[in-house]
Design goal:
This protein is mainly alpha-helical and 154 residues long. The protein is built from 4 helices and no strands. The two termini are 66 Å apart.
Length: 154
């Protein structure tokens, strides 16, 4: 019979093992980078440089003048590629969460079973202790009756 600690250590070992495919690892990295302040600030920096380069340095006659059509195309492509990759990562994380929930459920069932066994043992101990106390009390009553009878005979 496995103990609760055994089950918890098995669950921890399974979580430490990395069974992700290379695509899943890439999706996780893209999702973690795409949702970080580093990405936001670096992308903001890129946009500012793009606008300054095209409006001021190239005097709005460069490769992408004011309406920034090429920049819009780049932004659309990034969003179109990044969104499904992030969704793949989230789906994988949801699957991992479901597995973790199943394992937690198994651990909780095992803990409940162990608690019930302990409760039964406590009930047995209390019952046995109660029986012993009743027997001792019965002996005390008998002794008290003998003492009372002995005093009344005097």
């Amino acid at each position: 019979m496995r103990t609760l600690k055994d089950i918890q250590s098995i669950v921890e070992l399974e979580e430490q093992e990395d069974h992700r495919t290379s695509g899943q690892r890439i999706a996780d990295k893209v999702a973690s980078f795409g949702g970080s302040w580093v990405f936001i600030l670096s992308f903001l920096f890129f946009l500012v440089i793009w606008i300054l380069l095209n409006v001021y340095w190239l005097q709005n006659k460069g490769f992408d003048p004011y309406p920034f059509i090429f920049l819009n195309l780049i932004l659309s492509c990034i969003a179109a590629l990044q969104a499904p990759i992030i969704m793949m990562s989230q789906n994988r994380l949801e699957e991992k969460d479901r597995e973790r929930a199943k394992k937690d459920f198994i651990i909780n069932l095992k803990a409940e079973q162990e608690i019930r066994v302990l409760q039964q043992k406590m009930d047995q101990l209390l019952k046995h202790q109660h029986e012993e106390l009743m027997a001792i009390q019965k002996q005390q009553i008998e002794l008290m009756e003998q003492i009372i009878r002995g005093q009344s005979n005097l």
